[in-house]
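Objective 1b. Sequence-to-structure analysis of G-protein coupled receptors family 1 profile domain-containing protein.
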Amino acid sequence: MQCILVLNLEFPERKRKRQLCEVETQIRETTPLTLNQMATLVPTKPSALSGPVQSSIPPAVPSTAPLSLSSQIGMAILVIAFVFGFPGNLFVVWSVLCRVRRRSVTCLLILNLAMADALVLLSAPLFLRFLAKRLHWEFGAALCKTIHYLCCVNMYVSIYLICLMSMDRWLAVAKPFLSQRLRTKKRLLSIMLGIWVMAFLMALPMPFYRIVRPFRPGMHVCMPYHWESDTHEIFQYLSETILGFLLPFTFILFCYISVICRLRSAMFQRKGRGNALILIIIAAFTVFWLPYHLINILQVIGVMQGSSSSVLKAAKVARPNVTAFAFMSSSVNPVLYVFAGSSHIRQAGLGFMAKLFEGTNSESATTRSSRGSNAEISVFTKLSVKLSRKGDRAETPGGEDETMADV
């Protein structure tokens, strides 16, 4: 079926038709049409290609038509993410601000992570409405661009906060004295502010690659738009994957491989709560975002192969599902904290999460004090051995002279 829709027609014809066919395929899967309705999608005048479209396109299908399976799954994911994630992240923020007495570096980074996740989960009701209206976007172009921009900001903030957590663990184990000098409140706040500013800057291309287009009377779609250029499409998805996953994840792996090697060769083998908590956060981020970035890579490969590539078609079919799956990453962390701090629930009640986060502070203090106490023990041992030798020499003839010579 030829896909001709109500659009601005100054773009190159072939690429425009391909993009519109993809949109119609999504909408047709979301809202089943009768054969008569499909037939009326073709304009009544051939001259429509060179001017405003005069067509007999019917109004939107009544809302009583059943939703597609993919829309129902997407709505279920969004409901679960919002119901568990939004109040859960607010509870994390409340626990850190109101119940934690001494906030460690890990604790403050978890606070920022929860704030970023709560912010992006505010967009869930808009996406729910979008799916419930069968891909009709009724909130305007500005909000379409804004919420996708905030989702991209959340992705960058999350991964770079995790990088900072990993670097803090590495410094605490590999360079404890340097770590102690760097762990000042002013320096930490400056670094976190830098991460937020960097995330907002790195996400700037996202609003330029989103547009609201009319599909038929009474229906507008918030959709990707790459200015009719394969270069823009490759740039967007490749930059997201490199800057938002490959580079930071490589840095995280380096930090934790170094930490593991250091701990195996050191005298302290204790595994702390801070390490376990950060590893849980890293695992959750990887599980939920890795499929999204794999689809990014597949789509880049497909675009380079050409518009008829089966890889490109498969990537575009899978993108809505992996995007919804990545959205779950903003809601899973509070659930993981509940499991990690379950041993404190009976004792601390609602303050169990504060107990969990305070454990990261005591662990870092223990690491530093263990290093200091080990050094002190070593010094005292050497002094005691030397004094005992001096005492033995004093008991022998001429020992006093030898002792004075030693001194």
